[in-house]
Amino acid sequence: MIWVAVLAVLAAAGAIVYDRLRLRRTLNSLDRMLDDAIRGTFQPAHFDESRLSAVEAKLKQYLDASGTSAARLAEDRTRVQGLIADISHQTKTPIANLLLYAGLLADKDLPEDCRDCVGQLTAQAEKLQFLIESMVKAGRLETGVIAVQPRPADVGALTETTVRAAQPEAERRGVQLSSLPTVVTACFDPKWTQEALGNLIDNAIKYTPAGGSVTVSVTPYELFCRIDVTDTGPGIPEDEQARIFERFYRSPAVRDKQGVGLGLYLAREIAAANGGYIKVTSCPCKGSTFSLFLPMS
């Protein structure tokens, strides 16, 4: 009886050792398969009825499908890049000519009703120009034609330059635009981030009534630098605050204002490409604050 028990224990131990060795071999095979897949050199090595052979076949199918999808994605991206370039090139001259001839007509001695038509023609041509430029910028960002390249840069110089560029429009609309001085360094692409901040400031000026104010301020934190654009405009209802960053979205309350609904979308995309984000705090009739968060350098 003792020998039987000993033999049973040895058999059980042998079975355990065998199972562990087989498991180790299987795991080593899977590890090699994944390494080959990462290097792009994977080829099935087992052609039998085992589970490992079935896993190899499925992995090969998956890699082939992924390669096909990646090739199609690259092809689609190339096609979109060409389309963007064509749109930019083919529309530039016609729009410039529209604005030129509208300007020439405006210099003529026209009846009042004709002068109104010329004014509308100029406004619509400018709107079309802005729309196409915004779509081209958004398309280039989305397809990677132009890459945002964050680097340590002066936030104070960013806000000062952007506010200075927006000052003439603020004065034309009777809005007081100001920025608080700051000495902070964060990580961002200066050119594209100026585009994003400029969109936030332009939006604030556009929706702030004459006599109101727009203020730009900076608050540094441990991980992020926050740039606030605060206005005294009509505010944004809570149920619309999540939608205002969508492409082409415009609130029904501001449909009479000039715009195409791309500025905030573009600003959000640029912020994300910098490794940051944008949030909004607003209350109807009490103004809004758009906060651009940029990673600290």
Q: Would you kindly provide a written description of the structure presented here, covering whatever features stand out?
A:
- The protein is α+β, with helices and mostly antiparallel strands and 297 residues long.
- The chain has helices at 2-39, 51-106, 112-143, 155-173, 190-207, 263-273; strands spanning 151-154, 176-179, 185-188, 213-220, 224-231, 277-282, 288-295.
- The strands form two sheets. The chain has a five-stranded mixed sheet with strand order 2-4-5-7-6. The chain has a two-stranded antiparallel ribbon with strand order 1-3.
- A hairpin with a 5-residue loop joins strand 6 (277-282) and strand 7.
- The mean pLDDT is 80.
What's the short version?
The chain is of the alpha+beta class. Helix content is 59%, strand content 14%. The chain has 6 helices and 7 strands, in the order αααβαββαββαββ.
Q: Helix share of residues?
A: 55-70%
Cα shape: elongated
From the N-terminal CA to the C-terminal CA, the straight-line distance is 76 Å
* Adjacency order of strands in the biggest sheet: 2-4-5-7-6
**Uncertain regions spanning at least 5 consecutive residues:** none
Give the tally of β-strands. Answer: 7
Measured on Cα atoms, how large is the radius of gyration? 30 Å
Structural class category: alpha+beta
What string, H for helix and E for strand, traces the elements in order?
HHHEHEEHEEHEE
Measured by DSSP, the beta-strand proportion falls in: 5-15%
Number of helices: 6
Main β sheet profile: 5 strands, mixed
**Can you give the mean pLDDT?**
80
